[in-house]
Design a protein that fits this description.
- The chain has 4 helices and 3 strands; from the N terminus they run H-H-E-H-H-E-E.
- The protein is mainly α and 168 residues long.
- The chain has a 3-stranded antiparallel β-sheet with strand order 1-3-2, with no helix packed on it.
Length: 168
């Protein structure tokens, strides 16, 4: 009888201990979830604040540049040497940005794809990739023109999409 009481007592104690451990594990799991959620929220808040600060800085810079532009426009409407210099500077900047057409002496380069003068027999022998204008070809030409001191380079594609023209 004593052994039964000890066994029952130990069984009840083991059950109570198992129940306490499972409750503890669930509590820790829930607290970790709450902590991780609050850490994520804090991280998101920090990121939002960082972006808001960047936005505010960009907006203040934009308003400052807009004021400077307005001053330049006011000076440009005046008829004096300073305004002509500013207009020339604006024109030069627009040219560098590609916002105005540039005219003057230059070189025109035309690249033609799929040379029709080749016979069908020679096309089978040669690599046909040699007759197609690739991006790297265009890049090499633009780099060569730039290194040669070109002041302006324009790339225009014609309507039939086989010829490429470059203007200096």
């Amino acid at each position: 009888m004593k052994k039964k009481q000890i066994a029952i007592t130990l069984g009840i104690m083991c059950f109570a201990l198992t129940l306490a451990i499972s409750i503890q594990l669930r509590t820790v799991k829930n607290s970790n979830t709450t902590i991780s959620q609050s850490l994520k929220e804090d991280g998101l808040r920090d990121e939002v604040l960082t972006w808001k600060e960047k936005y505010d800085n960009s907006y203040s810079e934009l308003t400052q540049v807009a004021k400077e532009l307005e001053e330049v426009r006011k000076q440009a409407t005046q008829d004096n040497a300073a305004s002509q210099a500013k207009q020339q500077e604006i024109m030069q900047n627009d040219m560098l940005l590609g916002m105005v057409d540039v005219v003057g002496p230059g070189v025109e380069i035309t690249l033609i794809e799929n040379n029709p003068s080749l016979s069908s027999e020679s096309k089978e022998i040669l690599d046909l990739n040699l007759f197609v204008v690739h991006q790297r070809d265009l890049q090499q030409i633009v780099n060569a023109l730039n290194n040669a001191g070109a002041e302006a380079i324009a790339i225009n594609r014609t309507k039939n999409c086989t010829n490429f023209k470059y203007y200096l």
